């Protein structure tokens, strides 16, 4: 498995080897040794495994968890194809406000690790795209926050060829500047503490 740090500090892309044959294929989208070698610590204790399916054009995000408690994620696409985006929302981070994008698909099974405080968004490039998430904390709607994925200040790289389909929550989400002014964005040092001492919440 190959690993590459993204433009957002602490976020990584992982590319596993895929083994196809006449029966189908075999792949391991997450591998502990490769993760620990790249990130410098083991994967968080997994509290929840979630899957979303989306038709072409669905745009989800930018989602993040109030910190504390915070939530780290490991994401891969099991079927279809998505453009996955990570956004550094951690106030005080050396890459605060920066984003990076990775195309994930059910052909190469790339994975993306998002440390606590990094926002997540994606758009489905094909119908019936399935995205799987390993989460360090169980879902609690009281702690889940969202920024507008089409905020021009963020300038996220959504393709012009795809008409965005947003939930009401994402359509009405606050801007990046609005979230910062309201004190909703997490502090970098608090996020680091959460990542170094994760619990199952």
From TrEMBL:
CDD domains: cupin_RmlC. InterPro entries: RmlC-like, RmlC-like_jellyroll, RmlC_Cupin_sf. It comes from the Bacteria. Pfam families: dTDP_sugar_isom. Belongs to the dTDP-4-dehydrorhamnose 3,5-epimerase family. This is dTDP-4-dehydrorhamnose 3,5-epimerase family protein. The lineage of its organism: Bacteria, Bacillati, Actinomycetota, Actinomycetes, Pseudonocardiales.
